Amino acid sequence: MNHIIGQIPENISKLCQLSSLDLSSNNLFGLIPSSMSSLSFLGYLNLSNNNFSGKIPFIEQMSTFTESAFTGNPNLCGPPLIVKCRDEDLDERQSVVEGKIDGGYVDQWFYLSIGLGFSMGILVPYFILALRRSWCDAYFDLVDKIVKWLISRRRRMTYARNHAI
Question: What global pTM score does this model have?
Answer without folding.
Answer: 0.51
